[in-house]
Every structure is written in structure tokens, then in C-alpha cells.
Write a structure and sequence with these properties.
The chain has one domain: Muramoyl-pentapeptide Carboxypeptidase, domain 2, CATH 3.30.1380. It is 54% helix and 14% strand. The protein is α+β, with helices and mostly antiparallel strands and 207 residues long. The protein has ten helices and four strands.
């Protein structure tokens, strides 16, 4: 399946799955092989690092998060104290989200509303496998998406780390919107991670 929009590279895939810096800490050639396998045909002789790892999307999320990321952050939470730890993670998540939005904007010809909406209106393979959603509204000034299944939520809730996931990933969504374009802002009152029936993401374009 061909990819489209601002999320068509291996780096985009990784930044969607993992917060900044997490992959570097893993040091796992097996996981990297999954993302690099699409480039194997370019090599005269395929290196073993480029072989297909035969991991499903759920396996990737479970390996990257449940195996390493979540236990480390749970340990930090117990050492620092829950309230202070969550505040620190939210602050870092907002900065990471803002930078992610800016990086997305640099990767498209124009960081207008139409280019941003392409992830939901013309989704690539990654989002099709990691999320289930319906587009509730799609206009020149608003995009509302109702997400009913989320592989991030499933992975973190199974590991009893919903608060860590919301602070480290969900919270940064607001800053990512304005980082992509200052004319855009996001509203949300429900998330699967917090135990609601859906995530009601709504992005607004303001001139």
C-alpha cells in the first residue's frame, strides 16, 4: 500500500510509535529491521538488519512499550512521586509535541489545514493499523475525528500505565497542533486512555 501525506517515511513511523529518544534507548536491531525491510530491494545483497522481523503492529507496540518504556517510567514514578512525575512528563510531552508539529510542517509543501487533515482523510498504512476512527466533521475550518480503537491505549491500559501514556503522548497532541501551524488548535474532552468510550479529537483552523 502506498503511503500519503506527511507521514510516509521510516522516521515518521517511529516518531508516531515512540516519544522522542525512546527508540535510541532500545538498541534493538530486530525492531529496526521491521521498518527497514521496505528498503531491502534497493540493496544488491540484503543485510540481515534489513530482513523482515515478522512482527505485527501489536507486537511492535508491546515490545517497544510494555517491554522497556513502561517499566522504566513506572520505576521513575515510584522514585519521584506520582504528582511531580506526571507534571514533569506532561511538560516534556508538550515540548516534544510542539517540536513534532514543527517537523511535520517542514515535511510538507504547505502546512495548511488540508495537508494536516490528510492523515485522517487519506490515511497511510500505519494509522490504518494503529487506530480505528470515523470522521465526524471535515470542513475548511474544522476536523473532528472519533477514535474508537487505539493500539496505544490498548497497550498502556493492559500494562496498568494509562496515566503515563496520557501524560507522555496524549497530552502533547495539543501543542503539536499549534506547532504544525499557529492558526490551528485542538480541542478534546474524552480519550480512550482515560477510560472514555472514544477520543473526540477536534482541530480548528482560525484565521
Amino acid at each position: 500500500m502506498e503511503t500519503s501525506g506527511p507521514t510516509s517515511t521510516r522516521r515518521d513511523f517511529l516518531t508516531k510509535v515512540l516519544p522522542a529518544g525512546t527508540l535510541a534507548c532500545l538498541g534493538c536491531t530486530k525492531l529496526c529491521g521491521l521498518f527497514q525491510s521496505a528498503y531491502a530491494q534497493e540493496a544488491d545483497q540484503q543485510h540481515k538488519f534489513l530482513a523482515d522481523s515478522e512482527m505485527s503492529f501489536a507486537d511492535v507496540f508491546g515490545f517497544a512499550f510494555a517491554g522497556y518504556y513502561i517499566p522504566i517510567l513506572q520505576g521513575l514514578r515510584s522514585q519521584i512521586g506520582e504528582d511531580e512525575f506526571i507534571d514533569m512528563v506532561k511538560e516534556a510531552s508538550a515540548e516534544s509535541g510542539r517540536n513534532a508539529g514543527k517537523n511535520m510542517a517542514r515535511g510538507v509543501p504547505s502546512n495548511d489545514f488540508a495537508s494536516f487533515k490528510s492523515w485522517a482523510t487519506a490515511p497511510d498504512r500505519f494509522f490504518q493499523h494503529a487506530l480505528t476512527w470515523d470522521v465526524v466533521e471535515n470542513s475548511e475550518t474544522a476536523l473532528e475525528v472519533k477514535i474508537t480503537e487505539c493500539l496505544w491505549a490498548q497497550t498502556f491500559r493492559q500494562a496498568e500505565a494509562a496515566d503515563i501514556r496520557y501524560a507522555s503522548i496524549c497530552h502533547g497532541d495539543f501543542a503539536m497542533a499549534s506547532g504544525y501551524n499557529p492558526q490551528m488548535r485542538m480541542e478534546r474532552t474524552k480519550t480512550l486512555m482515560q477510560g472514555h468510550d472514544c477520543c473526540n479529537h477536534r482541530w480548528l483552523w482560525e484565521s
